Structures are given as C-alpha cells and as structure tokens.
C-alpha cells in the first residue's frame, strides 16, 4: 500500500563516483541484503525480522521493545534518547511485512535472495520499504558514531501488517498507551521511489478506500448465451469499465503533476476478480482500491467518484463517501 508523507534520508552515500562492486560491499548495502533475505511476506512468522532488529539495536546500545497488541503481529520500537525527553519526539516509521512474491511471477532472481548484479539489488522489499528502514538505522548509527546528541528522543518503529491494512499493527497501536508514551510530535514515513539522483521531500497523504462490488445476475450453463445485461459478469464488466475510464482521467492528471505533487489525482486499481469455470455464475465480485486525492476540500472529487459508481447500474447502494483519512472498506451490491 502507498502513503506518501515525507521522504527523507540522512544516510546517502558520498556523492563521489563509486563502482558497483564497491557499493555491493558497503556495510549499509550488506545490511539491506541481509534484511531482504528474511521472508516477511504478509502473515509469515516475523520472529526472524524482530531478531534482526534486536541484534542491530543491541549493537548500538539502543533500548529495544516489542509491542504485541495482537498475537503474531509484533511492533518493534527502538529508542535513541535525546537530551530533553520531556518534549515531543520524532518517529521514524516503516514496516517489516512485504507483499507475496514468487519466482514464477517473472523475477530475474529469487525474490528473497537479494541478489546484487551490476549495482542493482533484486528482492521483494528493496523499495517497499526495507531500504527505508535501513536508511533510518544508518542515519541514527552514523549520527551516534559522530558524537551527535539530538534534542528530542527518536523512535524507530517497524509495523507488522501495513500491506494488509494495518488493522493489527498501526491502527491499534495509535490507540494504545504504548504509543501515547512516545509523545510523538512528527512522524516520517514511506513514499514512492524515483530513478533520479536526488531525494524529493514532500508533505502529502492519500486517503485509502477499498471497495468490494458484488454483482447479482442469472445463473446458466457455460454453453448458453444469457444476455450480458442479465448476468453478474456483464454487470460487473460495466462497473469495471467505469472504473477504468475514471482511472484514465486520473492518469492524465498524474502525468502532468510534479514528483512532489501527489495530491491532485486519485489512483484506482482493480485488485481482484473471482472466477469459476464452466458456469455463468449468479454472483461476481471485484475488489477495487482507491488512493484518494486530498486536495479537493469542496467534495468535488467525492462527487466525481459517486458519479462513476452510480452510473454503473440501475441499482446501487452507496453507504457513504470518504469520511476520514483512516482506512475504510465498503461493500456494494449490484
């Protein structure tokens, strides 16, 4: 999932030309390689990843804590104390989990090998977002090694289920006493990646809206020709076409936006469609993920999306528009 808030790193390699071989042997790169080699696919056992971070925290003498608000979903908290713990702290947030990856999906090298070739590391999590976690750690380690003491406490937090919606990690953590004790004043999080030799900084967010549309129609044998307008698949095709048309319109906005201006457009992606063989089924489900524009304060964006949905079919039940910046899911029947 993608929430561009602030991208920052203070551990950029020196701006001199270096060879790919030198980069591959850099201690920070080797740390990232080791971390990527830990398979933290969603719902996997995160114990090895937690042990990895405990080892790094212990090496720097940093207090290490695990908050487990839901069994099997550990939240790692590493603290670097500042000179004044009474004022608000800085939170460097990332997540341990990654989306599934298989060799047959088209990977040049095994997705958890972290193989390095010609200066490129291949592996799930290299961008989203294990590289950022290592950047956080390296920034703290290097500042500490140089004798720097910050005014504020700094907390590295690593979440267990961001890719699944954060329902057992960040969401309950924000409501917990453990989080309140951190006294967070500012939080740095993930953004997108750019193939440019610079780090863009921007302060924007997206509102995530995941919807599931269930279409109902007549059932029939796979050898027959019921009218498209009467079948669940025909109705869902209409829904999907409306989504894709809206997606094309938003993509046109995206191509004109600058790299630090993610607010004016909404990304729309169809994530899942259920299928069944040799049967015209009575129900058909598709799942769509929206990352909503947050710059239209007058509700214009919501109105456009409502129009897109309401034109899909004669029967459509809209529960609500986007009510808050928290993760929201809705189910619609057609």
From TrEMBL:
Pfam families recorded: Peptidase_M20 (PF01546)
Key words of the record: Hydrolase, Signal
Gene Ontology molecular-function annotations: aminoacylase activity
Signal peptide: 1-20
PANTHER family: AMINOACYLASE-1 (PTHR45892)
Protein name: N-acyl-aliphatic-L-amino acid amidohydrolase
Native source organism of the sequence: Manduca sexta
